[in-house]
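Open question from group meeting: does this chain pack into something compact, or does most of it stay loose? Before anyone orders reagents, we agreed to write out a predicted structure and look at it together. Recording both the input and the output here so the notebook holds the full record.
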Amino acid sequence: FGAPMAFFDTSPLGRILNRFSGDVQKVDIQLCSSGNSFANLVATLLGTLALLVLNSWWIVATVPVLGVMYLKVAGYYRNSARELQRLDSVSKSPIYAAFSEALGGAATIQAYGRLAAFEADNRRRFDKNLRAGFVSAVANRWLSVRRDAVGPTCLAASNSQPLAPHPPPPPPPP
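Structure tokens returned:
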């Protein structure tokens, strides 16, 4: 990959395994799923906007305002999600390192009777990783609550057209 040998000498084995396994998982699983989801969401968005515009022209004034609000929330979430992903990756590296060490030294761990201590250390590592995952799940829920508020706002704007004051009818001809 073009990385100097010093990278492999100075980086812990768990971090290297974490990085490579994460990249392979993203290419194999997430990339195809993300492409399909993106195409579905774009088609749904265009169809929904077309139906809303055909139903009520008031939505044309509402969508840009809601779009700006949504972009601000998404930008805030994106920055937080990036840091949370970093925390998850950093807390996953010791798990990979311990697992690879355990594979190589399973007989030694059992010979010295350190199995209970090794299990306790692994539980501590998993707990730390799960805390980062929980915070990430909470951040995803935070975004979905704000995203789900956009739908009722569009609906309210679309349905407020009949309530708007109309100009008086022209006088009858003499």
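Observations to bring back to the group:
Helices lie at 5-10, 13-55, 58-111, 115-148, 150-159.
The mean pLDDT is 82.
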